[in-house]
Amino acid sequence: MPLLRRLRKREIAMNNITMRMNADELILMALREDITSEDITTNSVMPVYQAGEVDIICKQDGVIAGLDVFKRVFEILDDNTEVVFYCKDGDSVKNGDKIGLVRGDIRVLLSGERTALNFLQRMSGIATYTREIADLLKGTKTKLLDTRKTTPNMRIFEKYSVKVGGGYNHRYNLSDGILLKDNHIGAAGGVKEAVRMAKEYAPFVRKIEIEVENLDMLMEALEAGADIVMLDNMSVEDMKKAVSLCAGKAETECSGNVTRENVTKLVDIGVDYISSGALTHSSPILDLSLKNLHAIHSI
User: Fold this and answer.
1) N or C: which end of the chain has fewer CB within 10 A?
2) Which of 181, 199, 240, 249 is catalytic?
3) Do β-strands 208-212 and 178-180 pair in parallel, antiparallel, or remain unpaired?
4) What is the pTM of this model?
5) Quick check: is 10 catalytic?
């Protein structure tokens, strides 16, 4: 296996461990949102225990992500629930594929169905959309990044899904990195002042990234010693000039309404990173469902 692929698999595995450490509380919040006192529909048709089994069916092509989260929903409801998968996170799946099954108390299968699918569909949708854009950047040095434009309380799941799809994570939250945007620059009184103040305040191990909107701001950022410059909503021509001016001085990131439809215009610019909020705020879900529920005699 090529070294880069091994490193990416290890990176995803470590990210998955972190997600597991934080996931239970968020999953419980989602379950409490859906079941405030009881599942009145299920309890009306299934008043007592009955073992059952249901298939997990894929209804469109895509990339799967979030299997452990899906499984954990049912385990939290009843740790005797058994979930079997026929694929793993990062695998491509096809319309009509049976990708797993859930076996246990039918009441648990019914009550956990929507919450589990909400996580799996959302995460798989992000992984699918990310893969589509990442594939367009293959063969270049440019890495695809996500942003903080995530669903409240879903960030850990959504950023994990970006990695599964072949993208990379930008800073996780405001405590994770310094990114001076337009309003920070305005508050500080200018580009140079913002960088200077960040250098004075931040630990020396922190890189300082600053958003610039034109070449004049770029030159100020370079003179001030910024480590990374974000080229925000600049023309392709100006971004190419910016990359040349930054060579050996700072890393470059391109940002501003990047989508699957327009990313190819940015491929030849030569930036180090392209960030896209669309990975998490505009990815459609991957259509999945639980089908063929039936009772079984033993479990």
Assistant:
1) N
2) 181
3) parallel
4) 0.91
5) no
